[in-house]
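ugh ok so i messed up the first submission bc i forgot one of the chains. this is the corrected input, ALL of the components this time, i swear. 383 residues overall. if the numbers dont match what u have on ur side tell me asap before i send this to the collaborators (the ones from the other lab, u know who)
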Amino acid sequence: MAPRATDIALDELELVYAFIYARVGNRADAEDLTQLVAMKAIPRLREGAPASAIRGYLFATARSVLGGFWSTRLGLSEAELHEDLAMAVPPAPPSEERADTVQRILAQLSDNYRRVLELRFLHGYSLKEVAAEMNSTVGAVKVMQLRALRAAAKVKETT
Amino acid sequence: MNRPENRVDKIVSDLLRGRRLKLRGGDGEEKAAITAAARLVSARLGPQRMNPAFRKRLEAALESAPSPRWLTRRAALVAGLGLAGGAVSGWLGARALEPAHQYAPGPVARPGGELINPRNGRWVDVAALAELVEGQGKRVTAGGVGAFLFRRGDTVNAVSSICSHLPCELAWNSGGGGLLDCPCHPASFTPEGKSADDTYGLPELNKVQVRVTAAGRVEVLGTA
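and heres the new structure output, hopefully the right one now
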């Protein structure tokens, strides 16, 4: 039996959801934003967009919705969010490529920065556990975490 | 707690616990660190799929949109689906009979915007007209009715302080172009109660009855 139009949309929206989740890092926001993309897309797609344009349109909408999300939440202008809005349309479902990208970013950080981010984000350590592991204090780890995140953001923008 | 490392760590801790991003205006200075943190958290979890319950909700929302021809027959054929014309039109026809969903986009009439008429309502003095600043929303309560007041000259209009989508208290955001923001999802409303986003057609906010007395007092029809 041929798939229903709704099922095709839902499969495309799965990609949109993964795309958005990878950028907001939590389910609740990813669900809200995916729903927003779906609802924004209905009237436009109703006009008769060819199927080949559906994914492109959904991801263009996702980029715009994400730009609006960050600018609303952080009080920033869209211009300041240029790099978020310029994200490429993924040609296929997200793969292990993202994990590789993270490893590539971490590899460019200093040893301490890489360590604190690996322990905190990839291994889920608490600040206290990171401090114990690195023979440091919770306060110092917090500062290092912030500096490491700033450094990681710069790597992302230049690669 | 206001030090940037503390604020960013609070956000990181929330993300690591799977919580929603709760950001404040000042966090914009740490935008790069916050977006990097969100990406690292998701990288730890790997590619995510929709929760089945959410997928079902989304499916229901798509199917109950007022005119579901968002994927046309031509588009379906281009996609190589080979849908039989009868099957397509049958499905579309069936959907067209269903009631409009609250997200109704485009020019379709949206529900909402109803006048709140409290049972045994009474006029409650909530402010002096002179206290209200043009261009600024003021949150007031009149018994069980919560409202935002907006002054224009000597007149005042009032809209419900509850979002028309999720039952959350709206917040006045003077920095965001003068809109009422919902804290529970990305939606905003104008002082007239209309959704600030034309394409994401949320219902209008319900209207609250308000009057200005001869003595310059603002009264809202609320509950005892």
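quick check: Chain A has a mean pLDDT of 79. that seems consistent at least. The domain at 5-85 of chain A is CATH 1.10.1740 (Rna Polymerase Sigma Factor; Chain: A).
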